[in-house]
Design brief:
Rossmann fold; alpha/beta; 12% strand; RNA-binding; 10 strands; Tyrosyl-Transfer RNA Synthetase
Length: 407
RNA sequence: GCGCAGAUGGCGGAGUGGUCAAUCGCAACAGACUGUAAAUCUGUCGCCCUAUGGGCUACGUAGGUUCAAAUCCUACUCUGCGCACCA
C-alpha cells in the first residue's frame, strides 16, 4: 500500500529526439548529454521558473511550459517554480530600466493564478504529478552570510558579460546591486532544488547558465539547460506583453483569435512549430504551399484556430473564426459584446467614458471628428451631442463595441 | 567627501524668460486601403467647457525673482561622470 510505485520513463528515441529538437534553440552542455541520460531510462527532474510579475501567463510562457509538459509525459519529474522572491526584485533581462518592485501581495495573487493557468498543460495530480515550488522558501530564509558566500562564487566580470548590463553601462544608465545579484539568486534555485535540469526561454539563458555554474560548484553535478526558441518575427522583434500583440491566456477565444491574426506573416511557421502540436511534417507541407502561393491568411487562420483550440477547445475556435469573419469582414457585431442599460436621453459621450470605451470626453470628440463612431447597421455619428433615444449598438473604431439598451 | 553635468509627455529626445500643452522620432488611436488588426498613405495624440474661442493642470520636489518661468535664483531629492579615499 505504501511502497513507492516505480515510475518508468519513456526511452523511445524518436520521442526523446522530438523533445530535444522541436522548438529548441540550444541545449547545454549539449544535446547528447541529455539524450544519453534519457535513453538509459534515468528518471530526471527539470524545472521551469516563472516570476509572477503579472496576473496572466502569455504565449511566451507557454512555449517552455509545453516543453515541461512533454518532459512530464516522458515520465520525468516536472517542477514549476514560482519566483515569488525573485519576482519582487525584478529580472533586469530585456529591460532598459529597472523593473518596478512588486509587493508581496501582488506576487502571491499572481502566483496562484499562474498555477491554475499552467494546469492546462501540467498534471498536478496522479502518480507522476508535477510539483510546484516557491523560491521564497529558500531565498527568503537566507541570511547575509549565506548570500555573501554565494556571491563569492561569481565574479563581476562574469556578470558584466550580460549584454543587458553592457548596454546599460554604454547608455550611462544605472545598474543596481540587487539587479546584479539577480542571476545569482535565480541560479541558486537550481542548487536549492538540486534538480537535474532547467528549461526556459532563450532570453533566460544567462540566468539558467548561472544556475548551472552554481550547481557545479555546490552540488558537484552537471545541470543541463534547455533553452527554447522565442517567438520572434522576421525582424527579430520579440513578441511580448510590452509588444502589445502577445496572446495572453485569459483572453476570450475571440480576442485570442484576433491577436494571432494580427501577427506578421513571418511568424506563421515559427508559431506553428513552437506553439502548436501540429506535426513537423504537416508544417513543412504548409510552408511549401505558402511558397507556391497559398494565401498566408489561410495559414494564419489555421494557426489561430490551433492556438485558440488549445485553451478554449475546438468548438470555441471554430466559433471565433466565424465571429471574426462576421465582425471584421462584414462589419457585424461580435457575439460577446458588452451591454449596458441607460436612461433614455443619456448622452453617448457619458456612456462611453463611463464604460471606458473612450479615454475622455476630448478623446470622444476627436473620434467623432475622425468618423470613427457609428451605429452598427446605420450611419456614422457626426454630432458629439448624440444621445440615446432607443436601443442601439455602437461601434468605436474597428474593435470597440457596445450594445446600449434603454431602461 | 569635493567638483561637473543632468532630471521634460507612454518611451527616446528638442526647447534655455513671453508666439509652449511644448519641434521631431517611436509607440498608441482613428480614417483610407488591404487576405489580415501587416505594409503604405492621411489625421489625431493632457483634461474640461455654453467651443475656429475659453479655462485648468503639467516640464524631478519645495520655495523665490518677474507683468510673465520648462526656461532665471535658492534649497532639497535622484542619476551620470571626474577627482579624492580605498580596510
Amino acid at each position: 500500500m505504501f511502497w513507492k510505485r516505480k515510475i518508468t520513463t519513456v526511452t523511445d528515441p524518436a520521442r526523446i529526439d522530438a523533445f530535444l529538437d522541436r522548438g529548441i534553440e540550444n541545449v547545454y552542455p549539449n544535446k547528447e548529454f541529455v539524450r544519453a541520460k534519457m535513453l538509459r531510462g534515468e528518471r530526471l527532474s527539470m524545472f521551469l521558473g516563472i516570476d509572477p510579475t503579472g496576473p496572466t501567463l502569455h504565449l511566451g510562457h507557454v512555449i517552455p511550459i509545453k516543453k515541461l509538459q512533454e518532459f512530464q509525459q516522458l515520465g520525468h519529474q516536472a517542477i514549476l517554480l514560482i519566483g515569488d522572491f525573485t519576482g519582487m526584485i525584478g529580472d533586469p533581462t530585456d529591460k532598459s530600466a529597472t523593473r518596478k518592485k512588486l509587493t508581496r501581495e501582488q506576487v502571491l495573487s499572481n502566483a496562484s493564478l499562474y498555477k491554475q493557468q499552467a494546469a492546462k498543460f501540467l498534471d498536478f495530480t496522479g502518480p507522476n504529478k508535477a510539483l510546484i515550488k516557491y523560491n521564497n522558501d529558500w531565498l527568503g530564509k537566507m541570511n547575509f552570510a549565506e548570500v555573501l558566500e554565494l556571491a563569492s562564487l561569481m565574479t563581476v566580470d562574469q556578470m558584466l558579460k550580460r549584454d543587458m548590463f553592457q548596454k546599460r553601462i554604454e547608455e550611462g544608465n544605472p545598474i543596481y546591486i540587487h539587479e546584479f545579484l539577480y542571476p545569482l539568486l535565480q541560479g541558486y534555485d537550481s542548487v536549492a532544488m538540486n534538480v537535474d535540469g532547467e528549461v526556459g526561454g532563450n532570453d533566460q539563458t544567462f540566468n539558467m547558465l548561472a544556475g548551472r555554474d552554481l550547481v557545479k560548484a555546490i552540488n558537484k553535478k552537471e545541470k543541463f539547460v534547455i533553452a527554447s526558441k522565442l517567438l520572434v518575427d522576421s525582424t527579430g522583434k520579440k513578441m511580448g506583453k510590452t509588444e502589445g500583440n502577445m496572446v495572453s491566456l485569459n483572453q476570450t477565444a475571440d480576442q485570442m483569435f484576433g491577436s494571432v491574426l494580427s501577427w506578421s506573416d513571418g511568424l506563421i511557421i515559427p508559431g506553428l512549430e513552437i506553439c502548436t502540436n501540429i506535426s513537423l511534417d504537416e508544417i513543412r507541407v504548409i510552408e511549401n504551399k505558402m511558397k507556391e502561393g497559398m494565401n498566408p491568411r489561410d495559414a494564419k487562420v489555421l494557426l489561430a484556430k490551433e492556438i485558440v483550440g488549445m485553451y478554449h477547445g475546438k468548438e470555441a475556435a471554430d466559433k471565433a473564426e466565424q465571429n471574426f469573419i462576421k465582425t471584421f469582414k462584414e462589419g457585424a457585431l461580435p457575439e460577446d459584446v458588452q451591454t449596458v442599460a441607460v436612461a433614455k436621453g443619456e448622452k453617448l459621450v457619458d456612456i462611453l467614458v463611463k464604460e471606458k470605451l473612450v479615454e475622455s470626453k476630448s478623446d470622444f470628440r476627436r473620434l467623432i471628428e475622425g468618423n470613427a463612431v457609428s451605429v452598427i447597421g446605420g450611419d456614422v455619428i457626426t454630432s458629439p451631442d448624440y444621445s440615446i433615444d432607443g436601443p442601439v449598438k455602437i461601434k468605436v473604431g474597428k474593435r470597440r463595441f457596445i450594445s446600449i439598451e434603454v431602461r
